[in-house]
Design brief:
The protein is of the alpha+beta class and about 500 residues long. About 50% of the residues lie in helices and about 5% in strands. The protein contains 17 helices and eight strands. The strands form three sheets. The chain has a four-stranded mixed β-sheet with strand order 1-2-6-3. Helix 10 packs antiparallel against helix 11 and helix 11 crosses helix 12. The longest helix has about 35 residues. The radius of gyration is 25 Å and the shape is globular. The chain starts with a helix and ends in a 5-residue tail after the last helix. Bound molecules: protoporphyrin IX containing FE. The site of protoporphyrin IX containing FE has 26 residues, from helix 11 and helix 16.
Length: about 500
C-alpha cells in the first residue's frame, strides 16, 4: 500500500473506530441508570467535578433522578441521590457491600486490612462481629460511657484554659482521639503532644493522601503493581507509608498487651476481646489488632468534625442555644454536669444532636461501595464492579423532606409528625452502615450537653460565619471565629472540679 493511500485511509479507519466505540459505549450506557452524556472512550471524565462533588451530583439528581450514573474510562459510577435509591440498594443483601479496589491505599499501604477498605467476605464479617459485640447497641457500649464523660470533662478544662477559637478544633480532636484510644486500648492521652495520637494521625494523613482521587495511576491501572520499584516511584512512598500503618496497628496494641500482662489493664475493646477468647490463633490476634485500629480511623475525625460544626451552629442559632441551656438548667439545676443517663430527660438537647447529624454532613458522599455482581435496580443494570456513591449531603438537605434545610432547627425532630430521622441516612447504608454510630451519638450528646451547661458560645467580632463543608471524604465546617466563655462562676467551679472516672 502506497504512503498516499495510508494517509487517506488512516483518518477514515480512525473515524470508523471511534463511531464503533461510541456505539458500544452508548449500548453499555443505555442499560445503566441515566446520567450526563459522555465522550467515546473517556466517558464522563470531563463532567466529573473535582470540588464540592456533592453539589454537582445533586444537580445531576435533579435532572436525571435519584439513581443516576456516569462512566470514567469505562468504569461505571452509580450515584444515589435519594433516600429511596439508597433503600433500594439495601434490599439487595450483600450485593453492594464491598469496597472499590484501591491498590495504593489498600494493598500497598495496608488499609485493606482495616475495616473501612476491606473487601466484603468472611474476614469483614468477623470484624463487624467484634464491633457489634462491644459497640453495637447502647446497652453494649454502656460500659464505656463513664470514660466518654471523663474525657469530655477534660475537654471542658482545656477549653477553659485555652478558649481561643483557633484552639477549638485541636481540643476536639484531642477529645475524640482520647475517647477512642482509651476505649480501644486503655490509653489515656497526655495533655501535651501524645505519642500515640501523633503515630495514628500521621498514618491517617497518609491514608488521606493515598485516597485522593486520581493521585496514583496504579488505582486506575492496577497492572502497575507489577512494575519494579525503580520504574514505579509510588512504590517507595507506599513502602514508607506501609511502615507507618504497621506502627499504628502494633504500638498501641502492644501497650494494651503489656498492661494486661502487668494486671493493670482497664476495660477496653482490646482487653475485652482478648479475655473473651480462650484459645486464639495468630489470625484471630491479627483480626483483633486490625479491628482495633479501625476504630480510630473511623471514629476520631468524624466525631470531631461533627462537634466542630456544633459550635458553628450555636453561633448561627443563638435561640437554639438558649433553649437547650434552659432545658439543662431546669433538669440538672447547675449543681453538677449533665451525663449520658440524663438523655431521656433532655429531649431538646437530644434534638440538637439529631439536627447536628442532619445539618452538617460529616461524610457528604459516604464511603464508596462497589457491586459484587451484575444486578438490576429499578429496571437498570448495575454491572459487577460498578462504584456506588451515596450523596448523603443531598439526602440530608432535601427540602421536601427537611423544609429550609440550611436552617439549624432541632424543633423539626420534635414536631408531630417528626421529619425523617437523619440517622437513617447520615451513617451510610447496607452491611457497611457505620458500626460506630452508638458511640458517635453518645459522644455527641455528652459533649453537647456538658458544653452547653457551662459555656456560652457566641459570634466573634467579624462577619457572621457561613456554614460550608471542606473537601475530603471526612468533611469539616470551614474555620470560623467564635467566643467561648464560662456562663458563670458556678460553671467555672464545675469545670475545675474532679473528673468522675
Ligand atoms: C458523627 C459521627 C460519625 C458519622 C457521621 C459516621 C458516618 C459514617 C459513614 C457515612 C460511613 C460509611 C458507611 C457506608 O459505607 O455506607 C461510616 C463508616 C465507618 N464508620 Fe462511622 N461515622 C461516625 C462515627 C464513627 C465512630 C465513632 C466510629 C468508631 C468508633 C466509626 C467507625 C466507622 C467504621 C469502622 C466505618 C467503616 C465500616 C465498614 O467499612 O464496614 N464511625 N461512618
Amino acid at each position: 500500500m502506497s504512503s498516499t493511500t495510508t494517509t487517506i485511509l488512516a483518518p477514515i479507519v480512525g473515524i470508523i473506530s471511534l463511531v464503533l466505540v461510541q456505539r458500544l459505549f452508548q449500548r453499555q450506557r443505555g442499560s445503566l441508570p441515566p446520567g450526563p452524556t459522555g465522550l467515546p472512550l473517556i466517558g464522563n471524565v470531563l463532567d466529573m467535578p473535582s470540588v464540592t462533588e456533592w453539589l454537582t451530583f445533586a444537580e445531576w439528581g435533579a435532572k436525571w433522578g435519584g439513581l443516576c450514573s456516569a462512566t470514567l474510562l469505562g468504569q461505571p459510577i452509580v450515584i444515589l441521590n435519594s433516600a429511596s435509591a439508597m433503600e433500594e440498594m439495601d434490599t439487595k443483601g450483600s450485593v453492594f457491600s464491598t469496597r472499590p479496589r484501591l491498590p495504593m491505599a489498600g494493598e500497598l499501604v495496608g488499609y485493606d486490612q482495616t475495616l473501612v477498605l476491606m473487601p466484603y467476605g468472611a474476614r469483614f464479617r468477623t470484624f463487624r462481629k467484634h464491633f457489634a459485640k462491644l459497640l453495637g447497641t447502647t446497652g453494649a457500649m454502656r460500659q464505656f460511657v463513664p470514660l466518654v464523660e471523663a474525657e469530655t470533662h477534660r475537654f471542658l478544662k482545656r477549653v477553659l484554659s485555652k478558649p481561643n477559637p483557633e484552639h477549638l478544633s485541636g481540643h476536639l480532636r484531642k477529645l475524640t482521639g482520647g475517647i477512642i484510644l482509651r476505649m480501644t486500648y486503655g490509653i489515656e492521652v497526655q495533655e501535651e503532644e501524645d505519642p500515640f495520637v501523633t503515630l495514628i494521625e500521621d498514618a491517617n494523613d497518609n491514608f488521606n493522601a493515598a485516597t485522593v482521587p486520581g493521585a496514583f495511576l496504579v488505582d486506575v491501572f492496577p497492572a502497575m503493581l507489577h512494575l519494579p520499584e525503580f520504574l514505579a516511584p509510588f512504590k517507595r512512598t507506599a513502602r514508607i507509608w506501609a511502615l507507618a500503618t504497621r506502627n499504628m496497628v502494633e504500638a498501641p496494641y502492644l501497650f494494651a498487651r503489656r498492661q494486661m500482662s502487668a494486671g493493670t489493664a482497664p476495660i477496653s475493646f482490646v482487653s475485652s476481646l482478648l479475655e473473651a477468647e480462650e484459645k486464639m490463633s495468630q489470625d484471630d490476634v491479627n483480626d483483633i489488632k486490625y479491628t482495633a485500629s479501625s476504630l480510630y480511623g473511623g471514629g476520631a475525625d468524624t466525631t470531631a468534625a461533627s462537634l466542630y460544626a456544633f459550635f458553628l451552629a450555636m453561633v448561627l442559632a443563638p435561640d437554639v442555644q438558649r433553649k437547650a441551656q434552659a432545658e439543662i438548667d431546669s433538669v440538672i439545676g447547675g449543681a453538677r454536669l449533665p451525663v449520658f443517663s440524663d438523655r431521656d430527660q433532655l429531649p431538646y438537647v437530644s434534638a440538637v444532636v439529631t439536627e447536628l447529624l442532619r445539618w452538617h454532613s460529616v461524610a457528604p458522599l459516604g464511603v464508596p461501595h462497589a457491586a459484587l455482581e451484575d444486578t438490576v435496580v429499578d429496571g437498570y443494570m448495575i454491572p459487577k464492579g460498578s462504584i456506588i456513591i451515596a450523596n448523603l449531603w443531598n439526602m440530608l438537605n432535601n427540602p421536601e423532606m427537611y423544609p429550609s434545610p440550611a436552617t439549624f432547627d432541632p424543633a423539626r425532630h420534635l414536631a408531630s409528625p417528626a421529619q425523617r430521622d437523619p440517622r437513617t441516612l447520615c451513617f451510610g447504608f447496607g452491611r457497611r452502615v457505620c458500626p460506630g454510630k452508638e458511640l458517635a451519638e453518645a459522644s455527641l450528646f455528652v459533649c453537647i450537653a456538658m458544653a452547653l451547661a457551662v459555656f456560652d458560645i457566641e459570634r466573634g467580632t467579624g462577619a457572621l460565619p457561613v456554614h460550608e463543608n471542606t473537601q475530603g471524604t471526612i468533611s469539616h465546617a470551614k474555620a470560623f471565629d467564635c467566643v467561648v466563655r464560662p456562663r458563670s462562676e458556678k460553671a467555672v467551679t464545675l469545670i475545675s472540679g474532679d473528673i468522675r472516672s
